[in-house]
């Protein structure tokens, strides 16, 4: 028999919503702030610093690999390409740690870059530097798709936690429909990356593959963040307006 004084254990949906909502808030997607869509997207990308940290290591890898490409052997200089790429990521990480950034956030990108480089060096194939990225996109895309199929779209869970709506949005057909399509859009983004990039991975075309990874990164991420933010803000702004009108009516 449960103790009535003991608070109930949080459900899985609440835990997932809290985790997603916390991540979104750290990324600057906080509905409590009165920010423009441009400001929100800019914060989500990490500003100039986040853009440089996201793009430069991959860009250096592609440029060095292409410039050192040997047509006879069919490969570029992996040592220099990966060494410079990971080295730049290490410098960014050190700067963040010196700036008292959270160690987990600062080290996460470096560990991922080093692991991807290690795999490429182990196999001797430059295209294997992108394998972990494929796995990440596949995992995220699958999570969004499964969440829609089971009726708990991840965008809804995050928005519910951020706005204090918890799982109340599931009783609103309009919100369910919006969160359904937003989650489908995010699943589509990750699926599109795999569909476009995997053929070049199997063809061993490192230069095109690296270029596509950069082109399908922030340039696709930013617009989808903007659409998600605008849609969620519209849904909950409508609720706030209804609440304000009700308060005014009651006062009269």
Automatic annotation (TrEMBL):
The keyword Transmembrane helix applies. The chain crosses the membrane at residues 50-68, 80-98, 105-123, 143-166, 178-202, 214-236. It holds the Pfam family DUF3159. The keyword Transmembrane applies. Keywords: Membrane, Transmembrane, Transmembrane helix. InterPro entries: UCP010219. This is DUF3159 domain-containing protein. It comes from Microbacterium caowuchunii.
């Amino acid at each position: 028999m449960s103790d009535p004084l003991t608070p109930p254990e949080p459900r899985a949906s609440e835990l997932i919503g809290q985790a997603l909502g916390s991540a979104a808030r750290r990324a600057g997607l906080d509905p409590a702030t009165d920010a423009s869509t441009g400001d929100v997207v800019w914060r989500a990308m990490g500003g100039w610093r986040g853009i440089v940290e996201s793009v430069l290591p991959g860009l250096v890898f592609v440029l060095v690999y292409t410039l050192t490409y040997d047509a006879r052997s069919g490969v570029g200089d992996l040592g220099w390409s990966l060494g410079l790429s990971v080295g730049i990521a290490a410098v960014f990480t050190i700067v963040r740690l010196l700036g008292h950034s959270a160690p987990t956030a600062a080290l996460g990108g470096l560990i991922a870059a080093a692991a991807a480089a290690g795999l490429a060096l182990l196999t001797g194939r430059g295209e294997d530097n992108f394998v972990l990225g494929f796995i990440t996109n596949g995992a995220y895309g699958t999570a969004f798709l499964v969440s829609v199929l089971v009726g708990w779209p991840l965008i809804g869970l995050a928005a519910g936690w951020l706005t204090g709506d918890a799982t109340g949005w599931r009783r609103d057909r309009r919100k369910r429909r919006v969160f359904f399509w937003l989650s489908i859009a995010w699943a589509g983004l990750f699926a599109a990356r795999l569909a476009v990039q995997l053929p070049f991975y199997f063809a061993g075309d490192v230069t095109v593959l690296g270029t596509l990874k950069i082109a399908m990164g922030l340039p696709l991420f930013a617009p989808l963040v903007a659409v998600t933010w605008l849609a969620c803000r519209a849904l909950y702004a409508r609720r706030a307006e209804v609440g304000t009108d009700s308060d005014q009516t009651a006062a009269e």
